[in-house]
Amino acid sequence: MPAQDLDEESSAWLRHLGADGRDRQAAERDLHAKLVRIALAEVRRRSASTPVTGPELDDVAHQAAADAMLAILAKLGDFRGESRFTTWAYRFVILEVSSKLGRHYWRNPPVALDADQWERLPDRFGLDPERQAEAAGILAEVRRVVDEELTSYQRRVFTAIVVDGIPLDALAAALGVRRNAIYKVIFDARRKIRRALAANGYLDRPGVEQ
Amino acid sequence: MSELERLERFLRADPRDVGCDEAMAVLHIYVDLVAAEQDAAGRYPGVAAHLAACGPCGEDFTGLLLAVAGG
Question: Which residue from A72, A173, B6, B9 has the least number of CB within 10 angstroms?
C-alpha cells in the first residue's frame, strides 16, 4: 500500500522499522515494550482459564512478545494497510499468547475429579441444575449419538472438548494440529448430533442449521 | 429460555461460519472496524458468526480489542 494511504501513525511505524541504525533500534524497542505490556495484560486476563500461574505465566507473556516481535519483523512486507499497523502487530502477540497457553496446559493439567465426566455435561451446556430433568432425555440421546454415530476421531475430539472440558488450543497442541482442524471436527459433530436429534423427534425445525 | 433451547443453541452450526483460519486472518481488520464503531458484522458476517461460536477465537477477538483500546 502506498505510504500516503496509511494513517500517520502506521506510516511512521513502517518508516522507523524500515530505517537503519538507531532509528530502527528505537522503534523495535518501543514496539517490543508495547508487545510485552499487551502480552502480560492478556495472560492475566486469561489466568482464570489456564492452569499456568505465577512466574510461569509471566514467562509465557515474555516468550509470546519475543516470538511476536520476530514474526512482525519477518512479515513487515505483508502489512497491506487494511488496519492500523499497531492492530496488525498486536494480533501476532495475542495469537502467540493463545498458542503458548494451549501448549503449557499440559505441563500442569487440572486433575479430573471423577472418571465419568459425562455427568457434568449439563454444566458444559450451561443448563440450570434445577431444570436438568427437563433435558435428561435429550442428554441421553446426545450421548447415544456421540457413542454410535460419530466417527472415532469425532468422538475423541468431542469428548475431550465438550465432555472433559479440555481447552481447544490445548487439544490442538496435543494432537499437533491447527485450532481450525479441531474446530471443524466439533462443528461437524454438532451438526451431526443436531440432525440426529431432529430426526428422532427431540428437536423441532429439523432442516434449520442455524 | 428452556433447557431444550439451550441445547439447541449449543448445537447450532451456522453455515456462514468461516472457521478459525479465515477469521484470524482478518481479525485485525475486524477489530479496527469494531473499535471505530463501524458495521464489522455486516461487512464480515462469516467472521461474526465464527466469533460467536468459537470460544478461543472469541477470546482472541476480545484480547485484541482490549489491546487496541489500551493503545
Answer: B9
> In chain A, how many domains are there?
2
DSSP state string for A35-61: HHHHHHHHHHHTGGG-S--HHHHHHHH
Interface of A with B in 76-105 (CB under 8 A): 82-84, 86-88, 90-91, 93-95, 97-98
Of A87, A169, A209, the CB nearest to B13: A209
Q: Final residue of a domain: which of A56, A84, A107?
A: A107
**Domain extent at residue A20:** 3-107
Residues A79 and A156 in one domain: no
Helix (H) or strand (E) segment spanning residue A206: none
Number of domains in chain B: 1
> Does A139 reside within a domain?
yes
CA distance A60 to A100: 7
Give the mutation candidate from A183, A186, A192 for the B interface (greatest B CB count, under 10 A). Answer: A183
- Whether the CA torsion B55, B58, B62, B64 is positive or negative: it is positive
The string of pLDDT tens digits covering residues A27-58 is: 999 999 999 999 999 999 999 988 889 999 99
Domain limit, last residue, from A67, A86, A107 = A107
pTM score, whole prediction: 0.88
For chain B, the straight-line distance linking the first and the last C-alpha, in angstroms and rounded, comes to 39
Asked if the ipTM is above 0.90, the reply is yes
